[in-house]
Amino acid sequence: GAGVSQSPSNKVTEKGKDVELRCDPISGHTALYWYRQSLGQGLEFLIYFQGNSAPDKSGLPSDRFSAERTGGSVSTLTIQRTQQEDSAVYLCASSSRRNTIYFGEGSWLTVV
Amino acid sequence: GQNIDQPTEMTATEGAIVQINCTYQTSGFNGLFWYQQHAGEAPTFLSYNVLDGLEEKGRFSSFLSRSKGYSYLLLKELQMKDSASYLCAVDPGLNDYKLSFGAGTTVTVRA
Questions:
Q1: Does B36 have pLDDT greater than 70?
Q2: How far is B2 from chain A, CA to nearest CA, in Å?
Q3: Residue of chain B whose Cα is closest to the Cα of A99
Q4: Span B1-15, mean pLDDT?
Q5: Regarding beta strands B105-110 and B9-13, do their DSSP bridges make them parallel or antiparallel, or are they unpaired?
């Protein structure tokens, strides 16, 4: 498709398990973002990738969270040893220029 | 730190006008985004204001006052499909690409 694609759309996992969330940005977009949205909360920045530059990881909440972007395209957000407070919607976005950022539909994560 | 405030909820009647305010206090400012988000869906880009003033796009308009740290989104001729959450987000600018989002305003349009 033409938009930002995320998978899985829904994930239920047991506390302590690891999860991987995938994002396929819009083709040609050099910038890629991960945000987290908890119920009733604003979007929380997690990590930003721009081309071949070192990513801005300043929003990752703990060392259980990591992300990579391979070949300047697909990105994977990994959460190790999941906790219940990790339950949220994880949104990926991409852009080719600063003033227009497109979001995917998110991966809904529930940790039980 | 970043502080972005917008009302939690607003209700309006079909065909009416609603104005969603957003005030911000941030360490940097390049521009301000407005997004629309229907329940369970991706945020959809509405506008990006950099300069002071009103920008109109069909039924939706967005206003910015940089000196006052204030923006609003104006929705005219409301339709039922406009029921959604509206998010404002500050772009800090320069080499900082981390958008800071408000918690969102849920607009309910009633017949």
A1: yes
A2: 12
A3: B48
A4: 92
A5: parallel
A49 vs B: CB within 8 A? no
pLDDT tens per residue, range B45-78: 999 999 999 999 999 999 999 999 999 999 999 9
B85: number of Cβ within 10 Å: 18
**Between the CA of residue A36 and those of A28, A46, A49, A103, A107, what are the distances in Å?**
24, 7, 16, 12, 10
Contact B11, B108 (CB under 8 A): yes
Phi-psi region of A86 (alpha: psi -120 to 50; beta: other; left: phi over 0): alpha
Angstrom distance (rounded) from CA A111 to CA B3: 29
State whether B98 and A102 contact (CB < 8 Å).
Answer: no
Structure tokens at B25: 């206090």
Q: Dihedral of the CA atoms B19, B84, B105, A97 (nearest 10)?
A: -90
CB contact, 8 Å: A5 with chain B? Answer: no
Three-state secondary structure readout of B56-77: EECCEEEEEECCCCEEEEEECC
